Amino acid sequence: MTRLAAVVLFACFALAGNSQEADPKVTYSTVAVPVKRAVAEIAKATGAKIDVAGEITNEVVIISVTEAPLSALMDHLAVVTSGEWSTEGGVRWLKYSKSTFEKERRARRTARLARIVAAQKSIKEGLPAFDKPDPPKSEDADSDEEPSPSPVTKAIYRIVALMDAEALVDVEKRVVFSTGPTRMQRPLPNVDRIISKLVAEHDAQVAELQKEQQKADDLDPKTVEEEQREQLWNRLFGADNSLQIVAAPVAKLLLAATRDDFPDDGMGITFHLALFDQEGKILLSGSEVALAYPEEPPDATKPVVHRVDHPLDFSPLSMERHELFYGRSRLAAEISGPLLERLLRPDVYDPRSFMDSEALLVVARVKHVNVVANLPDGMPEMRLFGPMTVETHLADLRSSSDVLEVDESEDWIVIRPADPIAARDVQTDRRALAALAKAANEDGLASLEGLAAYFSTSSERSFLDSNYVRLFARNLFGQDWEFLRLYGLLSSGQRELLRAGKQIPVRSLSTAQKELITDMVYGALRYEVERPGILQFSESELITVAGLGRAWPELDYHDEPTELMPAGLPPNATVSMSASEEGVFLPLARQGEKRTFRGPMSADDIAARMYQSERFTATTPQAANPGKMGKRTVLTFEIHLMPGAMIKGSLYEDAYPKDAPVTTWDTLPKEFLERVKHRVEAMKSLAKLLYGDERGPYVHAQLKDGMAEE
Fold first, then answer.
1. What is the model's pTM?
2. Residue 396: CA atoms inside 13 Å, Cβ hemisphere, count?
3. Cβ neighbours of 385 (radius 10 Å)
4. What is residue 676's three-state secondary structure?
5. Distance from C-alpha of 694 to C-alpha of 701, rounded to nearest angstrom
6. What is the pLDDT of residues 448-461, one digit of tens each?
7. 479-515 pLDDT tens trace
8. How far is CA 442 from the centre of its chain?
9. Which of 366, 631, 672, 701 has the most neighbouring CB atoms within 10 Å?
């Protein structure tokens, strides 16, 4: 029996028959398991009346203790799970603690506030440099000189330096600050002088750029075709306001703040500034990560267990799983029966029960310490980039202070999420993941209902489930994740109404459904605005698929939801859905492959792939994939917010006849190939209009620099 298969290695007492001992000694080791299971096994081994109840049962722990006092183990289990022990009916129960929750919230807020205050102090110290004249430009093309910040960047820093840190500490998804706030906005301090300085600096910079551009145009005048392309670009996307003089008086300034997490560098807040005139048109806009604060360095005052370096070793199943998920030859290997059994049951064989667990068990064994750990699902799984030892692994864990809190003593290493509240927000539902894997195992395809049910269980996608979904549900790719969540939250009656072509008023939706739509509108900025003469939805999607264009432009207040919908979601907003059918191609494994992670491909997907391969002169078209044809039902959702503004998204469900013949891209059905050809030609035509070359922006840039091959 392998170490991985024996989840519980052994449990015993210090003395035979000591179940009545007040504080028995415990020797117990397990890879990642739910805390309820671990406590039940400890209770059975010791005779102690202990158990777990409530939502805390979903917490996953890794334990390795030798001759440890039961009371100490129980205390550490409470710490890593944010729980507390209480006695009821003669049994000690581990449950979530409201007081611990409040303590965690206060601690998280206090730590974030301190980091914001420190970042603001650094900003204030750097502000005087903004008022110094820029140094003469170096003529050295390879100069390492830092470019001077743009006027918008300077203005953002100046405003952030004035803001109350308390107003920024609770920023999560997106908060809009304003000089004239609506109900959905928050007030800014007086920034009139900053606005005046911004406009003056910007206009001076634009005037200088216009002079330089005029000189360049005099030396190399634009052709008629270039002028036409520039006019088309401005008509479709809107002119770049960073190159235009601010001609009208500023009526309002908005500063949108969004909290960002950078797994390797800590976290921060990105700010987007926009100036509006009296008519609500955007005069100037730009973004900057103005509050970037690094992760906390490891606490040098904390004791570190004596160093004993030793190479980490892993079970064959863990190595096989690592190669499957992360190795270069993952497509050429067969999944063994024992590994497949474990992958299909993440509710029994936890995703953290492989390398993450085994590494900590080695740490406990070679350093002769007790280990209790709870690794958050938002933390990436352990990966091998070369030989690893006990000390290098511990150093990695200690350095992840934005994710983990590692407490070490001579006898214990206790690891818990640095932000337990955030960790619970991205916790993967193991039972739901197992149900999805089981349903999709046969052909790697999950039903739409299965995908929707799974993704409705969590507000965020975690690192932990991504490989499982990729392996067992390759038809996830291309689905709209937020609409998957919405579809999963809909009742069967609501789904029937939508499929019958009926509209559902947003005001009649459940609280969870309305919260999701609110996040899509105000947090993710999902909605689009229809404007006469401006690029519409179908062309926008075409450009996105082809990789030709840029983000939808900011033109006026319609692009800012807190201005367009200043009192929240409009009362007359509705949700509707339409269905259509099209062909879909399911790639199979190529020669030499045992499996494929490639998802189903519509005609548009294949067209984009073909266009991408053709637009680079040094790239040959991808070799034909074997596969089979099926039928795709496309569900197109529209959330009508108000006239001219909506959120659109699509979900799809594919069906493939079991007796469908194997085909390749060049032997696809005629009508399917015609659509592929039409879409490729449309992409080429659009690229020709916008860039003067049907191969798109990259080749256009190479031609301009004289670098492209003929």
1. 0.83
2. 17
3. 6
4. helix
5. 12
6. 988 898 888 765 66
7. 888 999 999 999 999 999 999 999 999 999 999 999 9
8. 28
9. 672
